[in-house]
Amino acid sequence: MTQPDIARIAAETRSIAVVGLSPKPDRPSHEVAHYLQKLGYRIIPINPGHAGESILGETTYAALSDIPAGTEVDMVDIFRRSESVPELVDEALAALPGLKTIWMQMGVMHEGAAEKARAAGKTVVQNRCPKVEFPRVGATGPAR
């Protein structure tokens, strides 16, 4: 993944489903999602243990497939173990027609699932964090 690729993702993305988003402010998922929200991205929390609750002012869904039809989701940011990725990629590909990017957080990688997503025309980022990568490319939020 090149710096221009990251810059393109940052500019083209407007809404991000964050899988594994914790309501606890001291958790990395919450910190990253809050950062992205402050940049102007819409955050869609995915956490089955908190479905129906509000995290960062947004309704939390149990699964990607629970996001209401017609809701724009450009990127899925995965804060789950690597072994969970294939199922999440399958669900994202089936449930999110406008999806452009699958992003796997630091320490999260699954080459088989990544290849499947790429074959479906999606951009895939593995083992990286947008809170680290976006500032490196000077990203200031979604292109307007």
UniProtKB/TrEMBL annotation:
<dbReference type="InterPro" id="IPR003781">
    <property type="entry name" value="CoA-bd"/>
</dbReference>
<feature type="domain" description="CoA-binding">
    <location>
        <begin position="9"/>
        <end position="108"/>
    </location>
</feature>
<dbReference type="Pfam" id="PF13380">
    <property type="entry name" value="CoA_binding_2"/>
</dbReference>
<dbReference type="InterPro" id="IPR036291">
    <property type="entry name" value="NAD(P)-bd_dom_sf"/>
</dbReference>
<protein>
    <recommendedName>
        <fullName>CoA-binding domain-containing protein</fullName>
    </recommendedName>
</protein>
